[in-house]
Structures are given as structure tokens and as C-alpha cells.
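Q: How would the C-alpha cells look for this protein?
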Amino acid sequence: MIDSSFASAYFETHRQTILAEWFDLLRLPTVGADPKRLGDCSRAAAWLKKYLKTMGFDTEIVVPESGLPVPVVIAERLGAAGAPTVLFYGHYDVQPEDPLDGWKTPPFEPTLAEDRVYARGAQDNKGQVFGFLQGVKALLTAGESLPTLKIVLEGQEESGSEALHLLAPQLAKRLRADVLMVSDTSCAADGRPSIVAGLRGVRHFTVTLTGPDYDLHSGIHGGVAPNPAQGMAELLASLHNADGSVAVTGFCDQVREPTGEELDLAHQSMATEEDYLREIGCPPYGGTQGVDHVTRGSFMPTIEINGIHSGYGGPGSKTVIPSSAFAKISMRLVPDQRPDDVMEAVEAHLKLHCPRGLKLAISETCAGAPGFRLELKTPVFRLAADVLGQLDPRGAVFRWEGASIPIVSELRHISGAAPLLVGFGQEEDKIHCPNESFSLDQFIRVMAWASMMLKALA
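A: Here is the predicted structure in C-alpha cell form.
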């Protein structure tokens, strides 16, 4: 019988091999946004290609003709006749490991401690991808039937999926499917499995202010030369009103409001303010005041400052007016906002509010992706809810995640598949932060979900 015990038994039988192979993948520093790590991304793609071949997949590595040549792994294995075709999407790239001094163990030397694996990518997304593949492998080892399974694994999800966007038109026919499975999301706050019925879109960029040709003595030039660091503080502050709402004209013109049913279901699965404070260490007071934190995090767009850099930051003091300042900014978008439209509105705002005497430049803009929300009453959601109810007797909840998986909207379009986003991340995994981790229990739950859902589809 294919149930949660099936995955647990397979993991315990093959524990040493699974951990060794998972750790081999985690050791590769696949920061897809960094051109210097292109070789590591190529090695990871080759590793995945070889691994999938051992599972009986026809596998190929494809690279776009333009842009950064980060490889995409495409695989297919024919399955039971008459069963729906499943497309599984995941990514092997990871966030940069900075800041290094925040890690308790080396970020690319996986460490198992108290049944939790610590490493960059342990959860996001190498852990969930490899857990899914182990669920597939467990079915194959047991001689069980599977649906036809197509797999696409990319190396730029964390930085905009440029290569896969460029390759999408030529891959459209190869990726046609009925169901698009993704395991790159999280459980509910109380650990119940969740079906993600919507994601926010994303667009990010870098803004730079330059002033004098070189750093100036702050005593001689203070109060005379324009200060890029001070100017950047003023410029970034202009993006929001005093109540925390976005101040950019036109930014919120096309925002689809959630339905009453969506709001009710979202409140069932999100952490309370008290739980949030206990887990994160601060209360959920960001964003627009007067709107509850569940609505803000699930259904409203944002502009967030991801990093600000200027001048001297070492020990002691260095009394200068810096010659430049730059900031990393990301925007999370909701349905009906178009990434190009909001980017145009933000650029116009930044130019209008650029402090006098400073030059503004915008660079490193990603293609972006729109947000989406899915219909709740679909056959694939009903089947998934039934399977997840077997995995956890409390049943599944619906969630609308504030995070983004930029390529999912495009894969949905070119494949014609119904998206099914079910992941097993938890806040304690600390993805995108030092000491990222993934527990063995979570890993086995991904395995169980993969094996049970694929068997149900077959």
C-alpha cells in the first residue's frame, strides 16, 4: 500500500545512500545569480542529468543562446497509458551564502544535527527537489506504475529564471502536461500540509546614486557637497507613506481584491500575531497600517528594501562623504499588476524624487513575473486534498503565499497544466538566511507526498 509509511520504510532502508547523494548535491555552491559560480551550476546540472538517467529518464541539458548560459535540465519518463501527464518543476540554484559570519557550520558542507540537515539549499530547493525524486525512486523500486513524468530543473529561480524564460518557446511542446507539480513552498503555521492557491509575482532591481568623483572629507565638504548616502535614505523613504502604504503613483492601480472565501481560508492557515512574534522575534507590523497581517502578506503588493550600501562600514570611524550609494529593491506583485507597468511607475517615482545634485541609475532589472490565484474547486485540488488528508489526519489547508516562483506562471501557460504547489517548508528552516536547514521528517514528508500523489494520478 502506498501511504506515508511506504516513504518512511524506503528512507530507513536506504538512509545512508540517500543522505550521501543529497549531501553531494548540497556541496555544490550553485549561486545562479553569480557568473563566477557558472561552473558549479554546470556541475550540478550534469550531476542531476546522470542521477535522472539512473532512474530511467531520458535526460538532456539545454542552454539558451543569449544571456548567462545557466543550464536547464529536461527529463521525461513514459508511464501508465491513459494517466495524466505530470510536469515537475524545481530549481538547483541557491541564495548567496552571505553573511558568512552568521553560519554555525560551513554553508556548503552539509551537517546533520538532531535529525536536521544544515546547508545552503538544504530546503530551498535542493532538499524538496531531492525528496520528490526519492519518492519517485521508491515507487520505481517497488515496481509501482507512475504517470508519464516530465521534469524541468533550472539554476536561476532565485534571480529571475532568465535562461528558462528564454528557452520556454522552444520547450513548449516538450513540456505539455496535465498537472504541474511544484514542491518549493511551505506548510501552514501549525504544520498542516497546504495547497498553495496563489503566489505573488516579483520584480527586482538595483538603484544607484552618485555624487562627487571620489569620497570627500566630511569636515571640509560637509554641508556643501550632496551626500549620496543621505540622498539614498531620503529616496528610499519616499517610496512609502507614513502609514506604511506604497506612495508610488499608479503602483496599486491594478490590484485584484481577494474574495471573501479566499480571506476566510487564508486566515485559517496563517500564524497569529503572537505566533509570528514568537517565531520571528518581532511583531508583524510592516506594510499598511489598519490592514491585518494575513491580508497584507497574502493579497497585497509590496516594495521592500533588500540591502543598502554606501561609504565606510568597518570598525571605528572614517569621516567621509561617500561618492556613491546603492540599494537592492524588490517588489511583490498581485494579480492584475503587470511587472512592466509597476516598474515604469517606480522608475518615474525615483527620477522625480532624486535628490538635487545626485545622479540616479537603475540596473540589474529582472524580467519579473506576475502573481496568480487559482480556482479552488478543481479536480486536481480535490485529489490533492484527499491525498494530503491521508498524509495528515488534520487535513490540508489552502494558502496564498507572499513569496514568488517567477517561472510558474509561464510554465502554466506553455504546458497547459493545472498548477499544484505543495511543499513542506517551515519557518525554522530559515531559507535565504544563515543556518538554512531541513529536517529528515520534512524530507520524508516530501517523499510521501510525491509517491502518494503520483500513485493516485497513475
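The radius of gyration is 23 Å.

The chain has a mean pLDDT of 96.

Upvote if useful.
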